[in-house]
Amino acid sequence: MGRRWYLERKRDYYYKSAKKQKYRSRASYKLLQLDNRFKLIRKGDKVVDLGAAPGGWSQVALEKVGDDGLVIAVDIKPIKPFPVDNFHAIKGDFTDEKVQEKIGELLGGKADVIISDASPSLSGIKNIDQLRSLELVENVIKVADRFLKKGGNLLVKVFQGPGFNELLKKLRSSFMRVKSTKPASSRKGSPEMYIVCKGFKGVK
Ligand SMILES: C[S@@+](CC[C@H](N)C(=O)[O-])C[C@H]1O[C@@H](n2cnc3c(N)ncnc32)[C@H](O)[C@@H]1O
C-alpha cells in the first residue's frame, strides 16, 4: 500500500471512528449499518463469519448475539481472539473440507446467520478480481447450503460486474428476500456490493 493510500485512510471518517471506538476495522461500520437496516443478527444467534480477519465484523456480531450466542470466525490469516467463551477463530481456508468440518463441530448444529466479507487477494486487474470474488461467493453459498438453518440469513460481499445478476437470481431461488446494497461506509469508488439474503428456504 502506498503513501497516498495511507494518507487517504488517515483522513477517512470510518477509519478514525474505528480507532476511537476500539473496533478492529472500519469494516465494522458496514456490518453495523447493514444490520441496523436489515435486522440480520439477533440475541442468542449462532453466527459464522467467513473471511473474518482482523475481526471487525466478529466484534459487531458478538455484541449483537450477546452471551448466549456464538460467533465462529474463519480466515486464512490469524485472528486475535476475543476474551469471551462464545467466540471461536479457525485459521484456514473456508473452501477446505477440513475447515468446514471444524465449523460443523463448533456449531454443533446449524447456524442462524452466515456473514462473509471475504475478498480475494487482489491482482489489480478488474475482471480477474471480479471473477475471483464471484468464485468466493459460490463457495460461501456452498457453506450456507451445508450449515445455514431453514429461515436463516446470509450476508455476502461481492465485486459487481458480469455474472452479478445471475448470482442474484440464484440467491433469489434459495431465499425469501434478497437485496443488493452498498452501506454508506463502503468507499464510493470500490466495486464491492453487499447482498442481504433473508429467510433461507433450505436445500432443495
Ligand atoms: C476485507 S477482509 C475482512 C474484514 C473483516 N470483515 C473485518 O471486519 O475485520 C477479507 C478477508 O477475507 C479473507 N479470505 C479471502 N478468501 C478466504 C478464504 N477462502 N478462506 C478464508 N478467508 C479468506 C482474507 O484473508 C481477508 O482477511
UniProtKB/TrEMBL annotation:
Active site residues per record: 157
Reactions performed catalytically: uridine(2552) in 23S rRNA + S-adenosyl-L-methionine = 2'-O-methyluridine(2552) in 23S rRNA + S-adenosyl-L-homocysteine + H(+)
Keywords: Cytoplasm, Methyltransferase, rRNA processing, S-adenosyl-L-methionine, Transferase
Entry keyword Protease: no
Class in the EC hierarchy, top level: transferase
Main location: cytoplasm
EC number(s) from the headed UniProt entry: 2.1.1.166
SUPFAM superfamilies referenced in this protein's UniProt entry, alphabetically: S-adenosyl-L-methionine-dependent methyltransferases
Ribosomal RNA methyltransferase FtsJ domain boundaries: 23-200
Subcellular locations according to the entry: Cytoplasm
Pfam families registered for this protein in UniProt: FtsJ
Function: Specifically methylates the uridine in position 2552 of 23S rRNA at the 2'-O position of the ribose in the fully assembled 50S ribosomal subunit.
PANTHER family hit by this protein: RIBOSOMAL RNA METHYLTRANSFERASE, RRNA METHYLTRANSFERASE 2, MITOCHONDRIAL
Protein name (record): Ribosomal RNA large subunit methyltransferase E
Species, as recorded: Methanothermobacter tenebrarum
Taxonomic lineage from the root: Archaea, Methanobacteriati, Methanobacteriota, Methanomada group, Methanobacteria
Gene that this sequence comes from: rlmE
